Structures are given as C-alpha cells and as structure tokens.
Amino acid sequence: MGKGKGKGKVEGEGSTRERSISWDDDQTKFMLDWYIEYKKEQHAGFIWKTQHHLKCADALNREFAMGVTSTQVTRHYRHYKENWQIVERALNNSGNGFDASKCKLTISESEKAKLRDRDRRLLAKPIKYFHEMQELFSGSNANGSLAIDQQTCCDIDNKSGSSDHEGLNDVSTYAHPIDIAEEDSDTLPSPTGPDNCSPGTSGVSKKRPRGVKSPSKRQPKPKSRFTDATEKIGNTMDRLVNQLASPPPPPMPQLDPYATMWKRIDALPIGSKDKVAVGNYLGRQENEGVRGFLAASCDTTLETWVYQFICDRDGV
C-alpha cells in the first residue's frame, strides 16, 4: 500500500486536482496531534492558513518520508473535521446514547434510517480518533450531556450565522462526499452536492459547563526517533562540557612496593650510616632484581644479605 508517495491528477472534472492517498493510522494520528499541539501555542482567534498545512506536510514527510503535499494534508484534515461534525450532531441528539469507554454511540433503528450511508457507517462502530477530533475541532465536552435535537441545532446555526474560524471556512459550504460502498472512516471521498443543514461549529455545542472535565485525557504524544536521538546527543555533549570545565582530579600517590623491605632494614641493629649505604645500593636502578629478591625473602635472608654487604664494603 502506498504511503502518500507521488502525485496524480484526476481528469474529466473540469479541472485537475491531486489524487487521494492512503493514510496509515500512525500517520493520521501524527497529523491530528501536530495540529493540536500547534494550535495550543497560538493566540485566541487563530486562523488556519495554507502555510500551516504546508508545515504539517513537512513534518509528516520528515517523520514518515511520505512525499505528501499540503493540499493532500488539507483534504485529510477537512475529512476528519467533517467526521467530527457528524459525530457532534449525533451526540447532540437527545435520543442517542454514548458509551464513553468505547467512544461508541447507541442509535435507534428509526434514527439510523434517517442517516446517510456515510454517517451510518461512521457511527455504527467505535469512533476512531474521537478524543483527538474533539480536542482539535470542538471546545466543548461533547459526550451527550448537552444533547439537543438536530432541528434545534440547525435553527441555532441559521440564526447565529456561525462560521468556521479555522481558515478553511465553514464546511457546510463544502460539497459533501458521495457514499462509496465499503468506504472506511479514514479515507477521503470525492466531493459532490451540498447538504441543507450542517451544524458547523455551533456556539451551543462548543460551550462547556463549569466544573465538567474531559471524560478522558489524551495520551501524551510519543517522541519521534529524531527527537529521542537529539536529546541523547544533547545530554552527551552536556556531560562532555561539564567534564572539560571541571579541574582534573589530583594524581593518586604512588605506593612504594618496597616500603615493607625498607622498614625491615631500618629495624636491623646496625648503624645509621650502614642503613643509608644499604639503601643507596639497593635503590639503584641496576639493582632492581636484588630489591625484588630481598623484598620477597624472609627476615633471616634479608639480615644475612645486609651483614654480608657491610662486610664486603669494609673488606672484612
């Protein structure tokens, strides 16, 4: 399966456009998380523009080497925004139930009969990326607790003239997709005619009651391999800088391997001059073998050697 590589053109529609691509789950979640994190850093009233979708495309290409374009990212973003409008409209219907643990709606058979094929397929199973879509596209705690019927939702939207302040305009102005057989919830269908009523981003559904927290917290965004490697390199450089800035430790004192032998010679009942003479002789570099032998010898052997050295020196 292709991962967003290559661009194609669809002909016979009056104009050319880039073709739809297949998205893996981790690529879609990365895209939604990127938009969420980017939006958190922006000011109130922030509007999505083309350069923002281009930045998201660059991030996807660095992470997955997809070769995706900003236009394809914009369409994928818009697809999930439309999905959220379908979910939000169903959540605001007082006749529907919602299982927060499974992110799945319970819809009566009579209500299902009124739904379009695309809506029915989306709502018939657990809502994929429910929490990501809720955080990105809605400022409310859309869990069914603020349920209002669909007609009221549409009337409020029509009166308030609500608009999408995210740079893509209200998706009610977009063409709604054709219901394609076996269409999955994360594939982007082709556009067709408009619908009569779309809740858009209704001001009623976006209000969150005070004291009500989100039903579940979004899992922290996993670090990318590039970020993890960068942190490891940075930590290693910090350690090297600290080591270079710190003064070197003082050298350890050298222990004399013959210290015990010198003490044994100093304990012999001979004069100080004789002890000095013996020490001078054994301390020479050429006498290292003798030093080693005497250091490993018993007291009797060491004492005999010292007396013999003194006698030979004095010519006795």
From TrEMBL:
<feature type="compositionally biased region" description="Basic and acidic residues">
    <location>
        <begin position="8"/>
        <end position="20"/>
    </location>
</feature>
<feature type="region of interest" description="Disordered">
    <location>
        <begin position="183"/>
        <end position="231"/>
    </location>
</feature>
<feature type="region of interest" description="Disordered">
    <location>
        <begin position="1"/>
        <end position="20"/>
    </location>
</feature>
<feature type="compositionally biased region" description="Basic residues">
    <location>
        <begin position="205"/>
        <end position="224"/>
    </location>
</feature>
<feature type="compositionally biased region" description="Polar residues">
    <location>
        <begin position="187"/>
        <end position="204"/>
    </location>
</feature>
<protein>
    <submittedName>
        <fullName>Uncharacterized protein</fullName>
    </submittedName>
</protein>
